[in-house]
Structures are given as C-alpha cells and as structure tokens.
C-alpha cells in the first residue's frame, strides 16, 4: 500500500509554492452519499413521470427507466462538476473540489473521464473498487481520478486576507462593470485566486524579470476568462490588473464566508 499524503505541494515555474489539502476517503464517502441521495430523488421523480409509458408497454417503460437512470447518474456528476468548477452538491456541502493533479485548470475531458469510470469504481458493489484504489493511492485517487489526472481537495473557508498589504488603491477600474465582475468571480477558481494572492504578497521577493513574467502570465489568464472594455484596462500594468482582480475576488468571497 502506498504511503498516503494529506497535502500536495505544487511549485510554479516562477517559484511560487502553494499547497493543496487532499480529501480523505471519509469526507469523499460522505459527499458521495449526499450525491447518491440527489441522484435517487431525481431518478425516482423521472421514473414516476415515465410510468405513463407503462400504459402503452411495460417493456418501453422499463427501457426508458434504465436509460434515464444511467443518464442521470453519469450526467449529474459531469454537469455539476463542470458548472460548479469541480463540485457537486455533496462536495459543496463537504467543502471538497475536483481539480487537475498538477494544479492546472480542470478540463471538461477530465470531468467526463472521471465520471464515466465511476461505473468501474462502483464495482462489484458499494464502490469497492474505487474504495480500494483510494486507500492504496498516495493521493487518495480512485480509478477515475487516476485515468483523468485529477485529485479531490479540501477547500476550507479562509479568512479574508488583509488587502492593504497588496497596495490596493481606492479606485479599481474593473469595479465599474459589475456584470463582468460577477462573471469573473464565477470563472476564476479559488486555487487561481490563491496563486495570484500569494504572488502579490511575495512580489518583492522576486527578481524584476521573474516578477514581470509572472504577472504577465497571471494577467493573461484573467483576461482570457473575462474581457473588460478598453477604457477599464488601457494603461493598466499587468501587476496592477492582477491586483484589481484579486481585490474583487477576495472582497466577494470574504462576504460569502
């Protein structure tokens, strides 16, 4: 059995280190039970509606019931994890999140692969295969995670950071576009925000060339997620742009904690 770790350390090419708290089997099992309850409610409701087809043919009713059960059980995980950036109802309640094992942005193909292989993980019953894989994997990964290159992490609530240490100014040009700010908050993950925050806190420790390159890449990432009008970003340096984004992200998440 591989020795399991509870914390995954990741280091960016620019020298920024951050850690991810890996979810253990117990918390993942509890989240799974919540998700299973949601799926059961959905399949029961659909089955009740489909019962009308039993008046035509019992075979048609059974076929539609089995098909809908499969679609819901697989589609639930894919839909939730993609829409909620790696979370289902159970994972949200347990403060868990699926993400790429290298700390990169979760891809749709990864979400599909890990959820399709959930069928294998559930064999022969009670997620025995997936449970054994999680217990023997160093990063507590089931087969679906191993195939998709994903991990499940814990996302405990964090206190709002002291934004004064970032050198934030009273005027934030991005704040003038609340609809775009809301879209930015929806698209940027906690992990991406945390990386940007740590980069800003440690910016004075970087040599000038690495500092420019790091904030150029971070700014490009945020700009690719939401495009603000030219009047909001013209003349704004990459580092200033990242500061504006972090200020908006953590102000909102602090109110939600």
Automatic annotation (TrEMBL):
According to its record, what are the GO cellular component terms?
Answer: membrane
InterPro entries (UniProt xref):
RDD
Q: Which UniProt keywords apply?
A: Membrane, Transmembrane, Transmembrane helix
Query: Where in the cell does this protein reside?
Result: Membrane
Please state every residue range assigned to the domain named RDD.
22-149
Write down the superkingdom of origin: Bacteria
Q: How does it sit in the membrane?
A: Multi-pass membrane protein
Q: Please list every transmembrane segment annotated in the UniProt record, as residue ranges.
A: 29-53, 60-84
Q: Give the principal location in a single coarse category.
A: membrane
Q: What is this protein called?
A: Uncharacterized membrane protein YckC, RDD family
